[in-house]
Amino acid sequence: MELKQRLQAFFAQPGIRKWAPVSLLAATTGIIIGTITANPALPQTGAGLVLSGLAINLASGLLQPIFDAVDDETRAELLEKQLGDKETKPETTRLTAAALLEAAPILAEVLPVTSSAALITNLEKSMVDAGGALAKIAPSYISALRAPPVDWGTFRSELAQIVATSLIDLEVENQAIVERLHIHHENQPGNATIRVKGGDGVRISDVGITQIGGKAVSRTCPDCGTPVMTSAARCSTCGLALTAPTANPTLVIPMTILAVFANPPGSGTTHWEDESKALRAALAPHPDRFRIELLHDCTVDELHQALLRHRPAVLHIQSHGTRSGIQVQTSHNDPHTIGWRALMQTLGNVSSLRCVVLNACESGVHQDIGPTHFDLITTPGLISTEVTRFYTSAFYDTLAARRSIAECHSAGCNRVDLYGITAEHRPEWRAAQAS
Questions:
Q1: DSSP state of 299
Q2: Residue 49, beta-bridge partner list
Q3: What is the tally of helices (H) and strands (E) in the chain?
């Protein structure tokens, strides 16, 4: 059965208008993929195939089960699970977008007149919700279903440019690190660009693009919303004369804050709840800029595993400290002291760190033995939990205000002074040193 007949039969089902948007999108895409991949004349390249000029990797571990599915129902279930995921993978949205573009003229023709409005609305919602390439082409694609363009070939080519274009705008916080970021862009009609904008002390390493061929798309028609190529003088859908390109959206990369609190059995209370609350009150209102990872009653293993797993930019530790080291506990709930030298050697292997805050007594004894690639906040002697609580609150308030670590430290000391607290010792700051 040809694609047109299969889609007509699908949309003629009773109750199709009441389907969940993501189910409708997945089932439609499943039918399209199942039909066109069965065509031996479909263009292929290496381990992939070409849909609307877009190369799709058939060997992808995420996509291969979709192509190997025994029927459309199974294929639709796999697609719905991936498209409904809050972290939809780019490969899935790209495949779905390519399939919809391939079948666009047929889809516009077979949608039932009596229910097309509801079906198109549900398709639009599901495309926007899925994000990625689907969200980018949704306005223009949906407009084409409602009012088909004269030239489907040009229309699909322009939307394929949008799907194939890889544009990453990185806006990072002060002291952030961007590393091991690569785009491989080969034999695609679109372009690839990485743009990084950051504050003080941003470090960029191992970032690059591998690209062969392609033309960039950077604007849409201000009248009808159709994506158009940079060189286009007029919109292919409505004929409007085009001027300057529009701005590209920004992707914000959150700074990871790992906050570790330890209060081993037999030690005095650290009032860690107050410090944890102060940190979260400052940063939690900015989930797009900060990712907070909390460890309470931390053990040796949990600390090491969290450093490896989260690769934090800021490490905040609150516990008891002595001249020998910082106190935590073992997995058997026994008290344990991590030596200052062992701790600093471990932190020296965490290249993502931009700042370490050690709210622990006697933590300043090791300032000269530790690594220097991050800012370090320590205490030279005994310190009260009242001082560390006020310091912590102001430190992270200032970090949330996009200030440097030096300004965060100064603000922390200022907050202690404002409360009129007289203390023999207070946190000290050691700046990172250029490598």
A1: B
A2: 44, 56
A3: 14, 18
Paired residues of 203 in beta bridges: 177
Separation CA 302–CA 282 (nearest Å)? 25
- Paired residues of 48 in beta bridges: 45, 57
Beta bridge partners of 245: none
Strand arrangement, sheet containing 251-252: 192-197, 166-171, 251-252
Coil, strand, or helix at residue 388? helix
Contact 274, 389 (CB under 8 A): yes
Is the distance from CB of 391 to CB of 412 less than 8 angstroms? yes
Tell me how long the chain is: 435
What's the pLDDT tens digit per position in 11-22? 988 888 889 999
Residue with tokens 């009773």: 14
- Using CA atoms, how far residue 3 sits from 112, 223, 369, in Å, is 15, 32, 70
- CA pseudo-torsion sign 210, 91, 42, 125: negative
Enter the tokens of residue 328: 């935590």
Write the pLDDT tens digit of every residue in 111-151.
887 778 889 999 999 998 888 788 888 988 999 898 888 78
What distance separates the 2 farthest-apart alpha carbons in the chain? 84
Q: Nearest to residue 392, comparing CAs of 252, 260, 201, 300?
A: 260
Q: What is the CA radius of gyration of the chain?
A: 28
How crowded is residue 147: how many other Cβ atoms within 10 Å of its Cβ? Answer: 11
What are the contacts of 359-362 at 24+ separation with CB within 8 A? 359/275, 359/316, 359/317, 359/318, 359/319, 359/383, 359/388, 359/391, 359/392, 359/427, 360/317, 360/318, 360/319, 360/320, 360/321, 360/326, 360/327, 361/320, 361/321, 361/322, 362/321, 362/322, 362/323
The encoded tokens of residue 346 equal 């471990």
Average the pLDDT over each of 228-237, 380-389, 414-423 and give the range with the smallest value: 228-237
User: Do 303 and 296 touch, CB atoms closer than 8 A?
Assistant: no
- The Cα 409–Cα 428 span in angstroms is 8
> What are the phi and psi torsion angles at 260 (to 5°)?
-115, 125
Confidence of residue 64 (pLDDT cuts 50, 70, 90): confident
What pTM did the predictor assign?
A: 0.48
The letter for the amino acid at 343 is: L
Alpha helices by DSSP H, 284-371: 300-310, 340-347
pLDDT at res. 248: 42
Stated as kind and residue range, the H or E segment containing 116 is: helix 116-130
What angle, 0 to 180 degrees and rounded to 10, lies between the N-to-C axes of helices 152-164 and 90-102? 170
The Cα–Cα gap between 106 and 104 comes to 6
3-state secondary structure of 240: coil
> Among all chains, which residue has been given the structure tokens 């033309």?
215
